[in-house]
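hey can u run this one w/ FE2/S2 (inorganic) cluster bound, need the structure tokens asap thx
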Amino acid sequence: MSKISFHHAGGAVDILDVDPGTSVMRAAVTNGIAGIIGECGGQAMCATCHVYVRPEYLGGLPEISDDEDEMLDCTIDPRDESRSRLGCQVTLGNGLDELEVDVPSSQV
Ligand code: FES
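ok here u go:
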């Protein structure tokens, strides 16, 4: 199993154990994590799965594709050039067995 922690404004944290191959967005939506919507179902077309990856995990992330990069310019909360990712484009497993993200205050 892989572990992902969702840090919310105010200090609450949701911690999930998920199967490798699960995206951050899918883990959140399946488990009812507040603040992650995933409106387009993971096609990098909505930006409602925006998360801020905690700095200590940035080195284990996949490269940002052109589609993700373009969509990250459409987030409601400001894009952080180093930490913002689309949760649907980051998948646990394959060397990324633990991840912590901050959930933006708004997605729509
Ligand atoms: Fe729509 Fe990630 S779910 S961009």
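The mean pLDDT is 97. anyway lmk if its weird
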